[in-house]
Design a protein that fits this description.
The structure is a single chain. By secondary structure, this protein is α/β, with parallel strands linked by helices. It folds into two domains: 66 residues, no CATH class; 58 residues, no CATH class. The longest helix has 17 residues. The protein starts with 7 loop residues before the first strand and ends with a strand. The relative contact order is 0.19.
């Protein structure tokens, strides 16, 4: 039997710190402490060669349960739909109008942070309702 392995989720993006801080707000994640001997991540970044400055950022689950999220700068922009996306579980155990109200309330909070509301997928007899969103760089995710 294979053992469970720790993993991180990596996002390609144009502005790693901006996208990371957005996801910190969405998930309640935090920016980890900088390497020992450095006052902050800005000091770390300034020590890098100019072409590497601002090229990466990360955030972590403060409880240590969820995966680390890593954001890396890439030169190309997003051009097609994600093949992988996050489902942010805000409506677990809820159904019908109560579930939709929770999804819509969280969606409104995230829109205020820079997200875009795409569409509500209504319950269809097999799946409960979910709200399709995009983060600050257009990456799709669902409020589920």
């Amino acid at each position: 039997m294979a053992s469970v392995r720790e993993f991180q989720v990596t996002f390609d993006c144009a502005e790693p710190e901006r996208v990371a801080r957005f996801w910190c707000e969405v998930l309640g994640y935090v920016v980890p402490p900088p390497p020992e001997g450095l006052a902050d991540w800005g000091e770390f970044d300034r020590a890098l060669p100019p072409e590497r400055q601002g090229s990466a950022f990360a955030c972590v689950d403060p409880s240590g349960v969820g995966p680390r999220l890593f954001f890396q700068r890439v030169p190309e922009g997003k051009v097609v739909k994600n093949r992988l996306h996050l489902d942010v579980r805000v409506g677990t155990g809820l159904a019908g109008d109560e579930r939709v109200a929770v999804l819509e309330a969280e969606g409104a909070r995230l829109v205020a942070l820079g997200a875009t509301r795409v569409r509500l997928l209504n319950a269809d007899g097999y799946d409960e309702s979910c709200l399709v969103m995009q983060d600050v760089e257009g990456n799709e995710f669902c409020l589920d």
